[in-house]
Amino acid sequence: MRYLPLTPADRADMLAAIGAEGIETLFADIPADRRLDGLADLPRAKTEPEVQRHLGRLAARNVAAGDVPFFIGAGAYRHHVPATVDHLIQRSEFLTSYTPYQPEIAQGTLQVLFEFQTQVARLTGMEVANASMYDGSTGTGEAVLMAHRITRRRKAVLAGGLHPHYRAVVETLSAMAGDAVVALPADPAGKADLLAAIDDTVSCVVVQTPDFFGNLLDLQAVADKAHAAGALLIAVVTEAVSFGALEAPGALGADIVVAEGQSIGNTLNFGGPYVGLFATREKFVRQMPGRLCGETVDADGVRGFVLTLSTREQHIRRDKATSNICTNSGLCALAFSIHMTLLGETGLTRLAALNHAAACDLAGRLAAVPGVSVLNDTFFNEFTIRVPGDAAAVVDALAERGVLGGVPVSRLLPGDQALAGLIVVAATETTTAEDRAAFADALAAVLK
Q1: CA angle centred on 424, ends 442 and 254, rounded to 5°
Q2: Which pLDDT does position 322 carry in this prediction?
Q3: What residues in the chain have per-residue pLDDT under 50?
Q4: Integer Cα distance of 437 and 407 in angstroms
Q5: Can you give the pLDDT at residue 316?
Q6: Cα 319 to chain center, whole Å?
Q7: pTM (two decimals)
Q8: What domains are there in the chain, each with its CATH number?
């Protein structure tokens, strides 16, 4: 029997049951020019050594982040992850564990998640955090749905500095649910009048800080206006190391805080897997998606851990679930928690200071390059520069000189000529003074 044992008759019966005329009907939503017409241009068969050699040649064409001066951010950041983190997460009891469907026999897993929740709540300044989400973008989408349930309104306002990927996730989920989304135009300077978009029809306001362009925003003013209108403030953070330098969103009036935790304990890994942080006020806990681990004592008075709330569809009736997220990023959450434990509060503060110092040094060097301007008044470890001409072409030219010099805004926000000359640049503790000098020199040479 083949791995896929369906017969043509089986397939015909399945298509008939769902009312589809043929297999192609199932792919109708995929544009025709995005579909292969026939088999891919690949050999029908290769030996295992031949495949290994071929894949090795393909892999050699990649440039690793640690091999060249690296200033790419825009939602995913290169930080040093101690070897201890990787060593511990590969212990078999962690590496092979999955969702604790029988939590009473998974005390170690539940304790790790309990500690993780405690750390996230402390970092965000909130009262309760869940046992992680897939990533920051899907967490943001879930936060908007949660706000709709709480306020019984169906309209979200998205600030112009929200990461384009996060905005796209919210718009996709909202379109499927028939909810309204007011996405404000891109705001590179971080000075748009967000407050004017808030009224008593709004469910929530989604604000990222530091935002996609690196700007630090005043959450308190937005929170005050949102609360006066009966709406919630959802604060989004894509760079978790910033928690070590900036006031916690919870202290500034946020009702829900969503963050991407990749920066702590998790390397870039070609884009994933990452780990979403999700925290809120205790009064909203029953509307929080995912799962919540709690601490208790057993019949003998011994400390133990339980799944206190499990509002996802695999644990309760689907119509009662707050989310259909089917798992949590358990191993990535563990890596986050181990790294945070190694850092401690003092270590995180020092790490954040190193990041900010590196970014300030880089901003000064780049601003001294003729034709280059820094847009931001304030920033953490990421900022936006304007260069003459096409930013994407400049980034490509920098790469030819061995410098990965940031992300052209046009890559994520195409079609807007006002953004064509902008590059989002990140400098973390992994960049050296030599790296930053090399970037400035390369940029000056490219623009000459």
Answers
A1: 155
A2: 73
A3: 1
A4: 18
A5: 61
A6: 28
A7: 0.90
A8: 83-340 (3.40.640.10), 344-447 (3.90.1150.10)
